[in-house]
Amino acid sequence: MLQKSSHFMREANLIDGKWVQADAGATIDVINPATGQKIGVVPKSGRVETRRAIEAADKAFQTFSKTTALERSKLLRKLHDALMENQEALAYLLTLEQGKSLAEARGEIGASAAYVLWFAEEARRTYGDTVPSPWADRRILVTKEPVGVIAAITPWNFPSSMLARKIGPAIAAGCTAVVKPASQTPYSGLAWGVLCEEVGIPPGVVNIVTGSASEIGDELCENPAVKKITFTGSTEVGKLLLTKAASTVKKVSMELGGNAPFLVFDDADLDRAVEGAMVAKYRNSGQTCVCTNRFFVQSGVYDRFVEKLAEACDKLKVGSGIEEGVQQGPLIDGNAVEKVEELIADATSKGGKVITGGTRHELGGTFFRPTVISEATTDMRFMKEEIFGPVAPVFRFEKEEEAVALANDTEYGLACYFYTSDLARAFRVSEGLKYGMVGVNEGLITTPEAPFGGVKESGLGREGGHQGIEDYLDTKYVCIGGL
Ligand code: ADP
Fold first, then answer.
1. What PROSITE patterns does this protein map onto (predicted)?
2. Which of 23, 63, 397, 413 has the CA that lies 20 to 30 A from 12?
3. Which residue's alpha carbon is at the smallest distance from atom 7 of ligand 1?
């Protein structure tokens, strides 16, 4: 497996169809979070290399934007097939640098392929309009055109599928791209370059640059040839990019932080709620932007829910992601562990009770025990801050309105979940929750067919769904006169 994965593991930038090093030859180490050992290096690039990548993308756009939707759809279908044919090798590489279990990594590569297939289909449906004209001698046409060169900046928690949601619609629309993967997990990003080459996507259409986030980010934001920035990551960096992209009035899509609430009402199917809670909380060791950050449980089922959640938690197999059967890998780095420890210390100092977990795992390194904390209160830090780790704080509530108000008491608005068997409540609560995505009696709702994205400070734009390609298209109005 290692041998097959190493075919995809490139230690170079992809610019204009060539694998190249950073000008100064500088590199960044890539670490396996399960062992703390170095896997390899990637180029530490800056503005100059990024500018070259943008120039290559701009040049490629001149021809790629003229291809037909059907041609691009076929390329994307090939890309989908290549992802699935190499699912195992790509998943192995992903686990190696990211830490998640192989089962989750396989799932992520499958999700990447599913997004690419979705956009292969959407490529052929970027319809315009003909509009009834108010003038007898003129006609009104509205068409869609690719925006041009797009820049994609992606995070380490889903190093493959976050690129699928950006490269997929870019190619479908006829755009070209400059991509910067996260420095912790660059190989899964660079693997897209290998796949694109192998399926015949023309040189310069997808360029990949690794290195200094701020230098690469500044060039991508300030270079006028880039017409759109698409970013998945923290709200803090998202705000920075929004400000910088304003200098050249670029289109922007932002998938930022979340503070997902998970509400369990007295009338919920408790076993189903616990099952949903496990996936909504502990997937990827709690390191996803749609992971539950706060559980709100009605008093009638509070004790039973906490007990069942802790029982399920204790059954999770923690270990190195590449070992079969492991369900929870390490956290990404030492800072992540320290943050989780700080949040737990804050909670216990304010009356929170650790029901299970609460400490580093005996495996050492950045492994952390799946944790449940009861008696959570609104003065604790995880009411406002993203945990990004395997810790479930459980708050108690009495009334529906109280729970909805608490759930909405955050500047974030990405995903939320709630469990009830009352149909009227299902509608009332889903309409009351100020979030971009709502899971009703479901803890895992992401799929390419549906629009993923947030409101408030969780972001702008949607990825997936028929909406997912719109941000990659400009609308053009043509008035034909003298008829
Ligand atoms: P996370 O907390 O998930 O690491 P970040 O927002 O820090 O989220 O990182 C997401 C992506 O944004 C990564 O690819 C990272 O390298 C990049 N990034 C971080 N800082 C900047 C910046 N100042 N400009 C551009 N990109 C940045």
1. ALDEHYDE_DEHYDR_CYS, ALDEHYDE_DEHYDR_GLU
2. 63
3. 234
Q: Do strands 415-419 and 437-440 pair parallel, antiparallel, or not at all (unpaired)?
A: parallel
- The string of pLDDT tens digits covering residues 139-192 is 999 999 999 999 999 999 999 999 999 999 999 999 999 999 999 999 999 999
Fold classified for 260-440: Aldehyde Dehydrogenase; Chain A, domain 2 (3.40.309)
If we measure between CA atoms, which residue out of 430, 377, 435 comes closest to residue 410?
435
Give the start-to-end residue ranges of the domains of the chain: 1-256+458-476, 260-440
Query: Please, what is the angle between helix 102-122 and helix 87-98, to 10°?
Result: 120
Q: What is the Cα–Cα distance from 352 to 392, expressed in whole angstroms?
A: 11
**In this structure, what token pair is assigned to residue 397?**
């509530």
Residue 400 annotated in active site: no
From the CA of 155, give the closest atom in ligand 1.
Answer: 10
CA-to-CA distance for 479 and 138, rounded, in angstroms?
A: 7
The CB density around residue 379, as the number of other CB atoms within 10 Å, is 11
Say if pTM beats, i.e. exceeds, 0.90: yes
Identical fold between 1-256+458-476 and 260-440: no
In angstroms, what CA-CA distances link 107 with 63, 90, 185, 282, 298?
Answer: 35, 11, 17, 15, 33
Where does 1-256+458-476 sit in CATH, by number?
A: 3.40.605.10
| pLDDT, position 5 | 82
Active site residue 291: no
DSSP 146: E
